[in-house]
Specification:
Length: 309
């Protein structure tokens, strides 16, 4: 990321890797209920034909949260949290923590990275993250989407049970369901999120609008969250529907998208937009602000250890 002064010691790749994972986990802990509400709104409409109009139960982000608390208990808002944290430690560590290293790779060590290089770096780390952590995303979405059955039972009894059940019933490929739409989504998210944050922060510092501190990080992160939501929502909805579907419902992500368009219209691709923005905006603010502070703290700690007594 930009913003390192000439006299500062740049954080190492290791610090960025672990710092990104830690910051992303903190952001997930704070914003997870919004993400769960987003998933419920995105999958709403899948069962309308089979279950009748009464199947539509959620209206708006806060209405969704209220309905879930009333019918399933407050803990339902954190369904899939364990898998979500596992996902962030692997996803964010790669897609965010290795972003600067990938920029340096494409520029062959130069600090002058243009927009094209930044987009390439964002696409690369986004795709790499999916390759490492797709099973955690599948389990997270399944947990967030599951509703308590009439007999009080659930689709999965725990995180490890979900991994085992999916592998047993759908094969190992089931854990990688939706991998291609997720690679597409992560490439788009990374480009919109990291490149937007990088460029806005760079412009703020270039024109001395703010110093490289919390207000600057907050502004750049909020703008990045909005841009990411607008660009990535259609792919995100398709990804969620496809990964949550029972075996055989859709033969591909493209078929899922076409079915959505035919049955629900273009607006289906922006279902859950408000919770997506609330979640993405707040997630970006918490993550990037935390990430910047964690990097500085870890770098200072490393310097103090290495300094002679």
């Amino acid at each position: 990321m930009v913003g390192i002064k000439p006299t500062d010691v740049a954080p190492s790749a290791t610090i960025k890797f672990f710092g990104a994972g830690a910051a992303a986990c903190l952001a997930d802990l704070i914003t997870f209920p919004l993400d769960t509400a987003k998933v419920r709104l995105q999958i709403q409409g899948e069962g309308v034909v089979a279950q009748g109009p009464g199947a539509v139960r959620y209206k708006g982000v806060f209405g969704t949260i209220t309905t879930m608390v009333r019918t399933e208990g407050a803990r339902s808002l954190y369904n899939g949290l364990v898998a979500g944290l596992q996902r962030q430690m692997s996803f964010a560590s790669v897609r965010i923590g290795l972003y600067d290293s990938m920029k340096m790779f494409y520029t062959r060590g130069s600090d002058n990275a243009g927009v094209v290089v930044r987009l390439m770096a964002g696409c690369t780390t986004g795709a790499m993250a999916v390759a490492f952590a797709q099973p955690t995303d599948v389990v997270k979405v399944r947990f967030q989407a599951q509703v308590r059955l009439d007999d009080g039972g659930r689709r999965y009894n725990g995180t490890m049970d979900a991994y085992r059940t999916i592998a047993r019933e759908e094969g190992v490929r089931g854990l990688w369901k939706g991998c291609m739409p997720n690679i597409t989504r992560n490439a788009i998210v990374n480009c919109a999120e990291l490149v937007t944050y990088d460029i806005i922060k760079e412009l703020i510092l270039k024109y001395n609008l703010m110093t490289d501190n919390l207000p600057c990080h907050f502004t750049a992160a909020f703008a990045a969250g909005f841009c990411t939501t607008v660009v990535a929502s259609p792919v995100d909805v398709v990804k969620t529907r496809f990964m949550n579907s029972e075996p055989g419902r859709y033969d591909s992500a493209v078929r899922c998208a076409l079915t959505m368009f035919r049955k629900e219209g273009p607006s289906a691709f922006y279902k859950g937009f408000v919770p997506s923005f609330l979640r993405m905006g707040s997630w970006n603010v918490v993550m990037f602000v935390s990430y910047e502070q964690i990097k500085r703290a870890m770098t200072q700690t490393q310097q103090s250890w290495e300094a002679p007594f």
